[in-house]
Every structure is written in structure tokens, then in C-alpha cells.
Amino acid sequence: MLVMFGWLKETKKIGPALSCHCYRCQKKRTWEHWKENEWVSFFTIKTIPFLSKSYVVCSTCRASIALDNTRARLVGVRENEPHLAKFLEEHQLVLKSPVQRNFLLAQREQNQSRE
Ligand SMILES: [Zn+2]
Known about the structure:
Layout: E1 5-22, E2 27-42, E3 45-58, E4 64-67, H1 69-72, H2 81-93, H3 98-114
Bound molecules: zinc ion.
Protein name: Zinc ribbon family protein
């Protein structure tokens, strides 16, 4: 008997997640909520859900940041937006040197004072 099994990966946009500053764009942007699911398939039919990951993606520059399950549950609830925005800021600045970080924060302040 021949059994065909494999992996299927699907990604789909859930909807807008929040609106906050993107350090790559250097502007306030809408971030989208995306979900990626991996399935075990038999005869090319999705059968067993295997992995599920959540991301927020900048709607303009497409920078994506993975969310753990706890943070993924916060998406879409307006009261949680400041918490998520803080997480995105920390994530975007974590690999920057202190000089780069200060420059980006100063540039953000400058841009916000112009808006
Ligand atoms: Zn961006």
C-alpha cells in the first residue's frame, strides 16, 4: 500500500493588529496580524495541524516580528496596544548599538513633533 504524506505550510492575513511606530520606516504605521500554520498532509489533504505561529508585519516595509502565544492573544484588543507597541519597539531596537538606538529615538521624536 502506498501512503503519501507531507507538510503543508499556509500563511494568511488575519487583519490589522495595531498602529505604532516602525523604526525601519521611521513613521507611524499600521501593523498587520498574520498567522502561519503547518500541517501534516496525507495524499495532499491537510490532516493534522502541527505548528501555528503568529506575526505582526509592518504594512509598508513588511518588517515582521514573531509573537509568542501570550502576545498573540493580546492582538486585536485595544487596551493591549501600548504593551504590544512597547514589545515591537524593544524588538526593533534590540540589535542596535547605543549610538544607533539614540539616533533612531531622536529621529522618532523629531518626526512626531512635526506631525
Ligand atoms: Zn515599516
